[in-house]
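Tip: read the tokens left to right.
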């Protein structure tokens, strides 16, 4: 199985990918965190979906970064993966 970070490294060589990635940074960060939580728990998308009482396609959409999950959904993922949800605000660049 190809790891997301390996794909990212390969794709980052393409300017179009880098531009899109930078514009969607927060979404990609969340998607990466979801995939890593599932992977660390040793679960497939189907197994995670079953624990969350949803479908594999919902998990796939969440992991794609195209969906903005609610806090309730993030809590379900945390319970299903045996992790704890932690949301924080960090200092960023001044606008």
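Filled-in amino acids:
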């Amino acid at each position: 199985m190809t790891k997301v970070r390996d794909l990212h490294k390969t794709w980052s060589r393409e300017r179009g990918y880098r531009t899109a990635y930078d514009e969607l940074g927060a979404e990609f960060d969340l998607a990466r965190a979801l995939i890593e939580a599932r992977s660390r728990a040793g679960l497939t998308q189907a197994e995670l979906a079953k624990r969350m009482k949803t479908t594999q396609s919902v998990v796939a959409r969440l992991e794609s970064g195209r969906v903005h999950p609610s806090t309730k959904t993030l809590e379900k993922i945390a319970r299903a993966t045996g992790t704890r949800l932690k949301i924080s605000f960090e200092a960023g660049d001044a606008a």
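The longest helix spans residues 25-40. Helices lie at 4-11, 15-23, 25-40, 45-52, 56-64, 71-81.
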